[in-house]
Specification:
alpha+beta, Beta Polymerase, domain 2, 5-stranded mixed beta sheet, 386 residues, 52% helix, 19 helices, 2 domains
């Protein structure tokens, strides 16, 4: 890594807090299998290599495998991704990277530090079908295989009933999550994102050196800085506040805010998207985990109110995550997602639309062609801990 101190402080803070809970005194063997900080194994390897922590030879070897494995996997993924992006450009399709693919160069500056199971790409809604067809032509297969074997129905389906994202993989192991929206249909009633405005605010990035990976700029566009932070907070909320890698993404984003950053504009975005509770809890959890630097008063201004805070605290806390203690919210993250909605009417509206989705939508949804099958699918998702 070009500058290990950029990432050393937040990760060490979290590792040391977790170490006290597992009662480890200087022994880091447990990190690889740890459910709380296991995602930071590659970072721990670099910290050990730089002398920030002391590692045994066995631990160093195991962590090195993770670190170099991340590098190798990204190089393979990047090679295939270039072909995909080239095909999109030939058809005039704009693409915005989301999460990990956008941050390898801009935040982590070392492709071995962040693991990625897939690449998330955002396309404009009117280009969604074209993007799907391009991926199919390039040999990508839908995954899971039994959901969408045939996409001929998609072209004739009204846009309102299109899936918000679809997953594809190829023979080389590249998994692409293709998005035409930032959130799935289940939670649309609660978060009124204006995707047209988001695209209008997106920035050309072909001259931004911070977005280069492996010496080449992959991306033509990126989210605006305010949309990026808002999306990270929303993404963490839609994972029930239990996705450590996104916490680190948020922390590093805040430690490297662009020149001229205006917190008033972020607060305005949080209000527009109705993610005050999501942003409040995401930022406060990051502060608890990693001592993430926040300006005085920002949490107070995001505060969604005592009732919203109570809803979350009854299910989950940063302390219960850090200690890996059982809690209702840890077992059923869907409850946390609902609790993070700004107002009770939004929760009721979301539950109503989730329980009784539009009949036309159900007609084109493999898991919900009848109300009973839809309810069984919802129950399955909640039970498995999504």
């Amino acid at each position: 890594m070009n500058n290990p101190s950029d990432i050393q402080s937040p990760v060490l803070y979290w590792l040391n807090q977790r170490a006290r809970h597992v009662q480890s005194a200087g022994n880091w063997d447990w990190v690889l299998q740890d459910p709380v900080v296991g995602r930071f194994a590659a970072v721990l390897f670099v910290l050990g290599r730089g002398g920030a922590v002391s590692l045994s030879e066995r631990t160093r070897h195991e962590l090195a495998q993770v670190y170099w494995g991340n590098k190798a996997r990204w190089l393979v993924m990047e090679n295939q991704l270039k072909k995909v992006l080239s095909a999109f450009r030939r058809q005039g399709l704009s693409v915005i990277p989301l999460k990990g693919a956008a941050f390898l160069g801009a935040l982590y500056r070392d492709i071995g530090l962040r693991s990625m199971s897939d690449v998330d790409l955002l396309v404009q809604p009117e280009n969604f079908v074209s993007a799907v067809n391009i991926l199919r032509q390039l040999g990508f297969r839908p995954c899971p295989k039994d959901d969408y074997e045939n996409f001929t129905w998609l072209e004739n389906l009204p846009k309102a009933y299109w899936p918000k994202e679809l997953s594809f993989d190829d023979q080389h192991g590249l998994v692409i999550e293709l998005h035409q929206h930032l959130i799935n249909a289940w939670f649309l009633p609660a978060f009124p994102l204006n995707m047209d405005a988001l695209w209008e605010r997106s920035l050309l990035s072909n001259t931004d050196p911070t977005l280069k990976t492996s010496g080449e700029n992959l991306w033509d566009r990126r989210l605006s800085p305010y949309d990026t932070l808002a999306y990270l907070c929303l993404h963490l909320a839609l994972h029930g506040l239990q996705f450590p890698q996104t916490c680190l993404d948020i922390d590093l984003s805040l430690r490297r805010l662009p020149q001229g950053w205006d917190w008033e504009r972020f607060l305005e975005r949080a209000g527009q998207w109705q993610i005050r509770s999501a942003a409040y809890h995401a930022l406060s959890f990051c502060r608890d985990f990693m001592a993430t630097p926040l300006p005085d008063g920002i949490l107070e201004r995001l505060d969604p109110g005592w009732l919203a805070r109570l809803r979350v605290s009854l299910l989950l806390s940063s302390g219960s995550i850090l200690a890996d203690r059982p809690s209702l919210g840890k077992r059923y993250p869907t409850l946390v997602k609902l609790a993070l909605m700004d107002r009770l009417p939004l929760i009721f509206l979301t539950l109503l639309k989730l329980a009784f989705p539009d009949k036309a939508w159900r007609a084109h949804n493999p898991s919900g062609r009848s109300l009973l099958s839809h309810w069984l699918h919802v129950l399955h998702v909640v039970k498995r801990g999504d």
